Amino acid sequence: MTKPLPVIALTAGEPAGIGPDLAVALSQRALPCRLTVLGDAGVLATRASRLGISVVLDTGEAIPPHHPGHLHVRHIPVATPVTPGVLDPHNSAHVLALLDAALAGCMNGAYHAMVTAPVHKGVINDAGFTFTGHTEYLADHSGTPRVVMMLAGGDLRVALATTHLPLREVADAITQPLLVEVIRILDADLRHKFGIAQPRIAVAGLNPHAGESGHLGREEIEVIEPVLDFLRGEGFSLIGPLPADTLFSRIRQDPVDAVLAMYHDQGLPVLKYASFGVGVNVTLGLPFIRTSVDHGTALDLAGTGRAEVGSLIAAIGMALEMRG
After folding, report:
1. Most buried among 99, 123, 158, 206, by the most CB within 10 A?
2. Rg, C-alpha atoms of the chain
3. Which residues on adjacent β-strands are paired with residue 75?
4. Do residue 3 and residue 135 come from a single domain?
């Protein structure tokens, strides 16, 4: 008996950015799934015309197998007309409505995974909504107490202990309870969603040279090392804390399944360099699968035909891989 194709919900993201460009570009690709784009059908049609892409938009209730030349759309209207490259706070509620609809569908089983095109945090906040990113929003609205942001690509997986925080707040945010939760989630999803029987995780220190035995900071001694020792006692395979400046060269010789960085810009520049154009953002710990592109809204590229679809293709592929 043929296994039914999984249903992937793609949120089109900020309508003035490259999300609609990427969505209509998918209409030219063969994908082994049923794909529905959550967005404004008129915006997608206009963007396709502007880009010279011939596509039939299907807004019917049933989501058919995806095939080239067609695109299923769950129409969620914008509030005001969209100009590529020009942000409008009036459409921020629309952007959040896309996430809410995808989240509801994942939670009730209508969708097997959510893939998200980029949003613009600034304009959402300008509209009066408190929004720090997809990761935090989906955690809050699914009732998930802790999630972990991980990017993958270039034969690397890099997870983050903290995400979108000002740098001066990072050290105070890194506590023993936080690290225990983050490492447990990372290990569990590497096992259950990526099929790795005994994950090996390299953990970065917070300070230069991992604190230099306390001379450059004591977070490694007082916070990170005790957590790693505790979890090793439970059977976790953890390496570190390692100096971040040499960690990535070390794991070239001694590969691991994931790296845990202490903050956003400690680990992600290396990952994004190694996976340029095909990186994937994964939210671990959610009760459903969520992947995303690893880039922003690229307002200057919207409607120009120069947006690259590689990261979105990789995000869909990873969602299907995690689905199994």
Report:
1. 158
2. 20
3. 39
4. yes
Strand 280-284 relative to strand 289-293: parallel, antiparallel, unpaired? Answer: antiparallel
**What region does 131 belong to: left with phi over 0, alpha with psi -120 to 50, or beta?**
beta
**10 contacts 117 by C-beta, under 8 angstroms:** yes
Nearest to 292 by CA among 133, 181, 183: 133
Query: Which tokens in the block code for residue 22?
Result: 């990427």
Angle between helices 92-108 and 134-142 (to 10 degrees): 50
Residues 266 and 302 in one domain: no
**Residue 280 domain-assigned (yes or no):** no
Q: Are 322 and 146 in contact (CB under 8 A)?
A: no
Beta bridge partners of 160: 261
CA dihedral sign, ordered 23, 27, 30, 31: positive
The residues, ordered by sequence, that sit 6+ positions from 263 with a Cβ below 8 Å of its Cβ are 160, 161, 162, 165, 167, 170, 206
- Give per-residue pLDDT as tens, 183-238: 999 999 999 999 999 999 999 999 999 999 999 999 999 999 999 999 999 999 99
Structure tokens at 60: 């019917």
CATH number at 226 reads: 3.40.718.10
CB 312 within 8 A of CB 295: no
| Angle of the 225-232 helix axis to the 176-192 helix axis, nearest 10 | 40
Q: With 0-12 CB in 10 A as exposed, 13-18 as middle and 19+ as buried, what is 259?
A: buried
pTM here is 0.91
How many CA atoms within 13 Å lie on the side-chain side of 179? 30
Question: Strand ranges (DSSP E) for 146-265?
Answer: 148-153, 156-160, 200-204, 237-242, 258-261
Burial of 250 (0-12, 13-18, 19+ CB in 10 A): middle
* pLDDT tens digits for range 47-79: 999 999 999 999 999 999 999 999 999 999 999
3-state class (DSSP) for residue 37:
strand
Name the residue type at position 116.
T
In a domain, 137, yes or no: yes
